[in-house]
Amino acid sequence: MTTTTTEPTHKATISSLYARNARSVVARGLKATKSTNWVIVLSGFFEPVFFLLAMGLGLGTFIGDVELPNGASVSYAAFIAPALLAVSAMNGAVYDSTWNVFFKMHFGKLYDGMLATSLGPLDVAFGEITYALLRGGVYAIGFLTVMQVMGLNLAWSAALAIPAVLLVAFGFASVGMAVTSYMKTFQQMDWINFVMLPMFLFSATFYPITVYPGWIQGLIKALPLWHAVELVRGLTLGVLDGSMLTHVAYFVAMIGLGLAFTTVRLRALFLD
Asked: ABC transmembrane type-2 domain: from which residue to which, for each copy (predicted)?
């Protein structure tokens, strides 16, 4: 009588999801940027700088100082600069993880080729998100340098804004890629801009959240950009308290959920 043994499939399942080679996806993105996309990447750095000059220095001369929750007052430029940094992190991460991924998925058919190799869906997800983080990190360092030259970093903790911005970009990129995996047409992709614009305008970017009624404040505090703005603003202005941990936890949860959904969707679309 012949007996058959069933080998454990756990290791095979893990290896099919993650081959520990996300760096190859990052390398491909960097090569593509160097050859064709460098102008788009460069323009993403100047956008928040232009907003800062126009709103912070221009409109700020009419507004004057802004009072913080701790009672201190700062210039309007110092108030909106960290918010614009957070917005820049969101925009860069969302662009790379939505429109860029959408094209690769439905028109370039790049993921079909990637997943036909030893790469797994988690390699692709990590690779694309890591590329978005590299882009966000360059933006953060450049914009913080501009803020430093203009005297808008008011505390030593402003140096921590760089890892904070990377955390924010990681969260938005993870969720952005997960959402994009469900999109099938350009018309559906327009919903992303429909969501991002209100967040940009109303997440305490240009004025304190206290200008809104209480129930609207509750809605805004549920939005990820508000948590990003408050985290980065607190670091650059030196307003440090326990709420920082809440903001960090919010983005850690975004990252976990985004990666989980992205991995499941990529496997369902290209492997199952």
From this structure: 39-269
- For the entire predicted model, the pTM comes to 0.83
Residue 204 · residue 226 · CB < 8 Å:
yes
Q: CA 254, CA 187: separation in Å to the nearest integer?
A: 25
Q: Specify the DSSP element, H or E, that contains 67.
A: strand 65-67
**Alpha-carbon gap, residue 11 to 2, rounded angstroms:** 26
Strand, helix or coil for residue 183:
coil
Helix, strand or coil, per DSSP, at residue 262: helix
- Cβ–Cβ contacts within 10 Å for residue 5, how many? 4
Distance CA 76, CA 66 (A): 6
- pLDDT digits over 25-62, tens only? 878 777 776 666 566 666 767 888 888 888 888 888 88
How far is Cα 181 from Cα 266, in angstroms, rounded to an integer?
A: 7
Neighbours of 156 (CB within 10 A): 9
Rounded CA separation 256/262 (Å): 10
Residue 158, Cβ neighbours under 10 Å: how many? 20
- Structure tokens of 267? 């496997």
Helix runs in 150-242, H state only: 161-180, 186-202, 214-220, 224-237
d(Cα 68, Cα 56) in Å, to the nearest integer? 16
Residue 71 one-letter amino acid: G
DSSP per-residue string spanning 137-151: HHHHHHHHHHHHHTT
- Report residue 246 CA to chain centroid gap: 17
φ/ψ of 183, rounded to 5, equals: -85, 140
